[in-house]
Amino acid sequence: MNKKKTVAIIGNPNSGKTTLFNRLTGSNQHVGNWPGVTVDRKTGHICHDGIGVDIVDLPGIYSLSPYTQEEIIAREYVLGDECDGILNIVDAANIERNLYLTLQLIALGLPMVVALGFMDDVRAQGVKVDCDKLSERLGVPVVPISAKKGENMHKLLDALVHHMKPPVKQPAYLHGVGAAIRRAADLLQPLPLRRCSLPFYAAKLLEGDKAMWERMDALGMPRTVRAELKSIADAMHSHANSTDNEMVLADALYDYIEEIARAAYQRPKAPKLTVTERIDRIALHRVWALPIFAFFMFLMFWCTFGPFGTLLGEGMEYLLQGLLSPAVRGALSAADAQGWLIGLVCDGVIGGVGGVLSFLPQIVILFFFLSILEDTGYLARVAFIMDTLLRRIGLSGKSFVPMLMGFGCTTPAVMAARTMENDSDRRMTIMLTPFMSCGAKLPVYALVAGALFKEHQGLVIISLYILGILVGVLAGFILKKTIFKDVSSGFVLELPTYRMPSFKGTVRGMWQKAKDFITKAGTIIFLMSVVIWLLQNFTPTLAVAQSSAESILGVIGTAIAPVFGPLGFGRWQESVALLTGLVAKEAVVSTMSVLYGAGGDSAVLSGLLGTVFTPLAGYSFLVFTLLYMPCMSAFATIRREMGGWRWAFGAAAFQTALAYLAALVIFQVGSFLF
Questions:
Q1: Spatial CB neighbours of 240, under 8 Å, sequence gap ≥ 6
Q2: Is the pLDDT assigned to residue 608 strictly greater than 90?
Q3: Of 340, 357, 350, the residue nearest 529 (C-alpha)
Q4: Residue 291: how many other CB atoms lie within 10 Å
């Protein structure tokens, strides 16, 4: 086999980049239809005609400007020594916008292939594309594809392996800008830079890229060269009657892009409204947008917690508690196992883990709907719809993008805040994201709501999701008036084309989330269940506890229980459960199952909770679970993304204080009224 090379996939958000990566490498990376899904690079490997190629999936970006974390990641990678070539995925239906990044990549001078994606959508619009002419204008190979359908994948692999070569020409910036770039590139010749990339460096210096100027200073750029570059930049913006050199270069490049599009694209004379435009006339209607969104949310929760979801949950519980647990107990008894071992395995392990896994079907249904909404492109519209509401209280609609991801898992949602260039908005978004109810809290909701509000379980759970959003909005208002007083940056969000989600892609996304849930149940929850059982059965002196109240957990729980008394749940069992929830929110269910001796049988546990909780106290418990600080994984991510422990502990204290206050108000006011 020949020496393998490394190729980076780069493209705009929603250009089909991750779908193409999965198609080429067979990887199970998540495919999304809205910005912020890919926040780190991912690597796969392919072998074609005996030649190995490592494929690196970089974040979706609009340009190689250092404004967002994604752009910084992509730019630093292609300017380094790892990258041997570039596979630029371009949305053929939005060619003008996508080619801005393409021409910046061509200026790097690296071997490159352009994959012209979504050709099926373009043909459906009656647009004809001359790929040969487009390739001639760009100076790099252009391969028309449909990553979703696998169209022309073999041709693309041939191009990557056999025809990937440096561009035969540089982008033709119009209005004299190209000549200025060439003069600036000549001045950079003495510096230790990759020769083929000098036009890119020159363009960035002329537009006033501060990070690029710092890079050149670090390389020892002479003062005479700096002065000459400044002179060229001044002459350029003086000729263009503009003091914004970045805008001058962008205008010159976009005018050239329009020439390319006119030469390679033949559009129908009277274009009809696209399917996306027709749907958006309704989905984004100023009156109907919110009711439509509310309807989809109601449908999702009804299917999850209605008769269908409940039936599947009961079936899973029967498998675990009706079949598995008795079989294991019988096998251990037949083997003359010690009583403590039988209790540990059946009550601790199967009871704790099974108490969580019994909610797996409902988790899968919820993730199924979220995957469909995401893959169709509708979730991006939700962020757009919410922008208007959030603006009225001083928040940016851009914050809602990672907050939407928070309904799945807080950890990647916090990472998705990297897309925000305004530091204050980014930090505030990270602090608000945990208020969005993640999937890990769902088993707790289903357990307590099923025990205390059986006939209205779905409505109670929906109210928690809505309450999380409202508290997040209120918290954002408080933070905006106190800590984060900077002006929010503008909200720019691409609304992707509506696309029919593929069955394979939807199932893959659903399975990936379900697998994460099962993995957590098999590791963290398993370990927590064993530890909880041991701590419940031994005293602080390591003697066998005669009652749970004498156990290590009983002593710890009794010490902290008075703190939660004003919230309506002052028993030590709930206090300990909330503590274990700091490790993983699902552990609240397994802990209560072990502490109350339910053996993982949710029906038994529900009956027990019905005797120790009043409906008001139960709802107060759910509200606190919804709002208090996230799990350790999310907490560690918040520390990393916000840049220190001070921010992380401050965020955790703020979230827990709001959780306590909200639960206190609900219980105390509710007790007064009812």
A1: 175, 248, 251
A2: no
A3: 350
A4: 10
Q: What is the DSSP letter of 500?
A: P
Question: Regarding beta strands 51-57 and 42-48, do their DSSP bridges make them parallel or antiparallel, or are they unpaired?
Answer: antiparallel
Beta bridge partners of 45: 54
Spell out a b/e string for 519-553, using b for 16 or more CB atoms within 10 Å of the CB, else e.
Answer: ebbeebbbbbbbbbbebbbbbeeeeebeebebbbb
Q: What is the pTM of this model?
A: 0.68
Res 532: pLDDT: 72
Contacts of 33 (CB under 8 A, 6+ apart): 14, 374, 375, 376, 377, 379, 380, 496, 499
Measured over the CA atoms of residue 213, residue 218, residue 221 and residue 226, the dihedral's sign is positive
List the one residue out of 439, 404, 401, 434 whose CA is nearest residue 418: 401
- DSSP assignment string, 44-88: EEEEETTEEEEEEEPPP-SSS-TTSHHHHHHHHHHHSSS--EEEE
Q: Which of 477, 482, 452 is closest to 614 using CA atoms?
A: 452
Which residues is 113 bridged to in the sheet?
87
- Provide the CA 606 distance to its chain's centre, in angstroms: 34
pLDDT score of 313: 75
- Provide the 10 A C-beta neighbour count for residue 632: 12
The rounded distance, in Å, linking the Cα atoms of 627 and 371 is 24
User: For residue 259, which amino acid is it?
Assistant: E
Report the distance separating Cα 32 and Cα 254, nearest Å. 28
**Residue 510 backbone phi and psi in degrees, to 5:** -65, -45
- Beta strands 128-129 and 51-57, pairing class: unpaired
Buried (b) or exposed (e) across 85-110, using 16+ Cβ within 10 A? bbbbbbbbbbbebbbbbbbbbbbbbb
Alpha-carbon distances, residue 556 vs 80, 323, 567, 575 (angstroms): 53, 35, 19, 9
Instruction: Give the integer Cα–Cα distance in Å for 83 and 105.
Output: 12
Give burial (CB, 10 Å; 0-12/13-18/19+) of 482: exposed
Residue 34 has pLDDT above 50, yes or no: no
Specify burial of residue 595 (Cβ count, 10 A radius: 0-12, 13-18, 19+).
Answer: buried
What angle do helix axes 131-138 and 245-264 make, rounded to 10 degrees?
150
What token pair was written down for 654?
């703020």
Return the residue matching tokens 């060269």: 225
Which is nearest to 347 in space by CA: 565, 595, 542? 595
The vertex-78 CA angle with 76 and 84, nearest 5°, equals 145
pLDDT in tens, 318-333: 787 778 878 888 888 8
Report how far residue 591's alpha carbon sits from residue 600's, in angstroms, rounded to the nearest whole number.
Answer: 10
- Mean pLDDT across the chain, nearest whole number? 82
- pLDDT tens for 629-664 read 988 778 877 887 887 788 989 999 999 999 999 999
Q: What residues have CB less than 8 Å from 56, skipping those under 6 apart?
A: 6, 7, 8, 9, 41, 42, 43, 77, 82, 83
Q: Please, what is the Cα angle at 410 between 407 and 413, to 5 degrees? A: 85
Residues 358, 320: contact at Cβ < 8 Å? yes
List Cα–Cα distances, 539 to 344, 531, 545, 546, 672, in angstroms: 16, 13, 5, 9, 39
Place of tokens 């990472």: 415
Q: Which residues on adjacent β-strands are paired with residue 151?
A: 146
Quote the DSSP letter at residue 375.
H
Q: Tell me the torsion sign for CA atoms 403, 305, 33, 289.
A: negative
Per-residue pLDDT, averaged over 301-319, amounts to 78
